[in-house]
Amino acid sequence: MRRMAILISLAAVLGLVAAGPVAARQPGATIVGTAIAVNKATGEFDELIAAVSRAGLVGTLDGNRQFTVFAPTDAAFAELYAALGVSGVNDIPVGTLRKVLLHHIAPGERFSADVLGATRIRTLNRDFLTPSVAGGAAFIDGARILIPDVDASNGVIHVIDHVLVPGT
């Protein structure tokens, strides 16, 4: 029940952050700024923000290049930590962390129709993700897309329920 309330709050905040005309993109929060705003309101991206910072990807995601980011929630990171037997992002080697995060980022802005219309999506680590639909829900490599199409000035964020691990 608590998780559902958080997701509803997250959706409401994302709607406010992403609001704006579709035809004319206005300057606004980047992917990093949008994630920080959402985290401030919901607390759902503490681990993602820490991981992006530790991996040295803030500058990349805060720039002018367009990206699609599949953003795991804190609960998704907690599941990863348990599976790895670590207590947090600081226990994961930076090189490994960077590879995992680059597996969540695709070049270009891909809204949900583009994601689901593709047979596979190349990521910045040169791997591919496979989108699918099952039971009326959208997935990317088995992770459920909880909240799609969070618009940012330099791309789009799709909130997912699992951390995507390269090579699995």
What does this protein look like?
- With 168 residues, the protein is α+β, with helices and mostly antiparallel strands.
- It has one domain (2-19, 29-160): FAS1 domain (Roll), CATH 2.30.180.
- The protein has seven helices and eight strands.
- It has helices spanning 2-18, 31-42, 46-54, 58-61, 74-84, 94-102, 112-117; strands spanning 67-72, 105-107, 121-122, 128-129, 131-134, 137-140, 143-152, 155-160.
- A six-stranded mixed beta sheet has the order 2-1-8-7-6-5.
- The longest helix has 17 residues, at 2-18.
- The radius of gyration is 15 Å and the shape is globular.
- The termini are far apart.
- Residues 1-26 have low confidence and may be disordered.
How much helical structure, as a percent, in the residues?
40-55%
Residue fraction in strands = 15-25%
- The CATH architecture classification is Roll
Which homologous superfamily in CATH is the superfamily? FAS1 domain
Q: Kindly, what is the distance between the CA atoms of the first and last residues, rounded to a whole number of angstroms?
A: 31 Å
CATH topology: FAS1 domain
Question: At the first level of CATH, what is the class?
Answer: Mainly Beta
Secondary structure layout plus pairing:
Blueprint: H1 2-18, H2 31-42, H3 46-54, H4 58-61, E1 67-72, H5 74-84, H6 94-102, E2 105-107, H7 112-117, E3 121-122, E4 128-129, E5 131-134, E6 137-140, E7 143-152, E8 155-160
Helix pairs in contact: 1-2
